[in-house]
């Protein structure tokens, strides 16, 4: 039909707006294996369950089946006993919101509903923890991190703990620098104080256990540590599922009960939500289950070895070009600065962006880190190590692109006009980083909201 043809042409045109993760040119966002058999399996599983709704698992019983399977797999990876239970959510942010909500419910039972609890976490914690604290009405307390290791400073955490502390949150690993917080030391202290500890392993939960099996020294962060009460881990990261699948694990059923919302007084159907969302498709769960079933432990172990091989080769090559790691390398994350300074980092990012590489650019943080590039290494990157390093060497020997010079000049003259070009240039990450440097935090936040409103206008 002509209409169908026209719709498909528009869909294909829209798809061309996005980068292709299978090329290996993305170092963020999509956790790509490079294996077409897995991609095909995920698509087929997903399509079988498009017209489903996990809202009522007594009607759509596959929701129960897939959730039990996914939670069971995650529990084994996280060193959990049979008492560990969990919930599948749509992503890491939802998992963390639910973990913080659970802590708030626990705190209110102890201190009363009028008491305002506090969440204590290091500066490197994912912003979803601040977001969850804001949503749930808890006060967020930020603690310092060690400058050299980029890990939570346990003594500083202790100083921020009080009788108002509802939850301590730590990372395994943190996203900016890829290091694993000292969970064991912090959790043992928290257990003595009766304070729950949540570990954000959204990034590392599906791969760090396999690093350990490869003989790599991985600091403990999971349920083997008695004081850990909950862990979040994303199947849509190193579980290689399509987006929309995360797991929140609880040490026992008592903690999970605090996470569930129930309204049986409503005149409609019995309203029982184990997750934040109500209606949601079972399709992402089916795809996640298909991937974990096809790979099995040996398949995940092989992919983890590809990540390590690619990470080490890329880091070795970039080190020869003058790049240096900002922290101990403990995960798939590389956070790198250049010995020649920030201008070299900016130029490198600009030229690599022009050549079609999607890499992160992280801002300067006072007393913590200079401007740096961020690479999340994935299995597919094993294929492109040589190509990436050749482009990297040429990027460092190139001059600053003229388009970037003009953009930075405009930024100095008229920051707002330059900001309005976000989304229209190849240098958005650089533009954002320079804007954040030049504006006070409250003004930058307000400008970000204004831009978000503008870019999503129909």
How are the SSEs ordered, and which strands pair?
Blueprint: H1 2-15, H2 36-48, H3 62-77, E1 85-89, H4 92-111, E2 118-122, H5 127-136, E3 139-143, H6 154-160, E4 165-171, H7 183-193, E5 197-200, H8 208-213, E6 228-234, E7 246-250, H9 253-259, E8 261-263, E9 271-273, H10 283-320, E10 323-325, E11 333-338, H11 342-354, E12 360-362, E13 372-376, H12 385-397, H13 402-413, H14 415-419, H15 428-438, H16 441-455
Parallel strand pairs: 2-3, 2-4, 4-5, 5-6
Antiparallel strand pairs: 1-7, 6-7, 8-9, 10-11, 11-13, 12-13
Short description, anyone?
The protein is of the alpha/beta class and 458 residues long.
Your description of this structure?
The structure is a single chain. This protein has 458 residues and is of the alpha/beta class. The protein folds into 2 domains: 45-291, Aspartate Aminotransferase, domain 2, CATH 3.40.640.10; 304-455, Aspartate Aminotransferase, domain 1, CATH 3.90.1150. It contains 16 helices and 13 strands. The strands form 3 sheets. It has a 7-stranded mixed β-sheet, sandwiched between helices. The chain has a 4-stranded antiparallel β-sheet with strand order 10-11-13-12. The chain has a two-stranded antiparallel ribbon with strand order 8-9. Strand 8 (261-263) and strand 9 (271-273) form a beta hairpin. The model has no long low-confidence stretch (mean pLDDT 95).
Tags for this model:
four-stranded antiparallel β-sheet, single chain, alpha/beta, seven-stranded mixed β-sheet, 16 helices, 13 strands, Aspartate Aminotransferase, domain 2, globular, Aspartate Aminotransferase, domain 1, 458 residues, 13% strand
């Amino acid at each position: 039909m002509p209409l169908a043809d026209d719709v498909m042409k528009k869909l294909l045109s829209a798809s061309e707006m996005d980068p292709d993760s299978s090329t290996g040119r993305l170092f963020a966002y999509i956790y790509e294996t490079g294996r077409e058999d897995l991609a095909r399996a995920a698509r087929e599983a997903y399509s079988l369950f498009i017209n489903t709704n996990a809202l009522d698992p007594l009607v759509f019983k596959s929701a129960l089946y897939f959730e039990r399977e996914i939670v069971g797999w995650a529990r084994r990876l996280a060193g959990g006993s049979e008492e560990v239970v969990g919930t599948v959510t749509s992503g890491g942010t939802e998992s963390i919101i639910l973990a913080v909500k659970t802590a708030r419910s626990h705190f209110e039972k102890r201190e009363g509903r009028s008491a305002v609890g506090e969440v204590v976490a290091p500066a490197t914690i994912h912003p979803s923890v601040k977001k969850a604290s804001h949503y749930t009405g808890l006060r967020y307390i930020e603690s310092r991190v060690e400058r050299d290791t980029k890990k939570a400073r346990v003594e500083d955490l202790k100083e921020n703990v009080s009788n108002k502390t509802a939850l301590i949150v730590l990372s395994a690993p943190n996203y900016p620098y890829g290091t694993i917080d000292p969970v064991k030391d912090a959790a043992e202290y928290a257990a003595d104080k009766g304070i729950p500890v949540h570990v954000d392993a959204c990034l590392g939960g599906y791969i760090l256990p396999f690093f350990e099996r490869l003989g790599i020294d991985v600091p403990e962060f999971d349920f083997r540590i008695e004081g850990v009460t909950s862990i979040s881990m994303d199947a849509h990261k190193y579980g290689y599922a399509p987006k929309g699948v995360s797991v929140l694990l609880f040490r026992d059923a008592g903690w999970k009960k605090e996470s569930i919302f129930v309204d049986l007084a409503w005149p409609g159907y019995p309203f029982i939500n184990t997750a934040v969302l109500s209606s949601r498709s079972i399709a992402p769960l089916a795809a996640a289950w298909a991937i974990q079933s096809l790979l099995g432990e040996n398949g995940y172990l092989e992919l983890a070895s590809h990540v390590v091989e690619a990470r080490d080769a890329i880091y070795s090559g970039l080190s020869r070009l003058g790049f240096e790691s900002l922290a101990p390398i403990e995960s798939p994350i590389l956070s790198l600065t250049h010995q020649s300074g920030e201008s070299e980092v900016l130029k490198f990012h600009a030229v690599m962006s022009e050549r079609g590489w999607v890499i992160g650019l992280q801002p300067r943080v006072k007393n913590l880190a200079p401007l740096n590039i961020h690479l999340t290494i994935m299995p597919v990157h094993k294929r492109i190590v040589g190509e990436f390093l050749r482009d990297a060497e040429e990027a460092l020997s190139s001059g600053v692109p003229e388009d970037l010079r003009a953009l930075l000049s405009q930024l100095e003259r008229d920051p707002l006009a330059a900001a309005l070009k976000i989304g229209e240039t190849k240098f958005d990450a650089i533009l954002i980083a320079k804007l954040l440097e030049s504006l006070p935090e409250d003004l930058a936040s307000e400008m970000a909201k204004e831009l978000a409103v503008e870019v999503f206008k129909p």
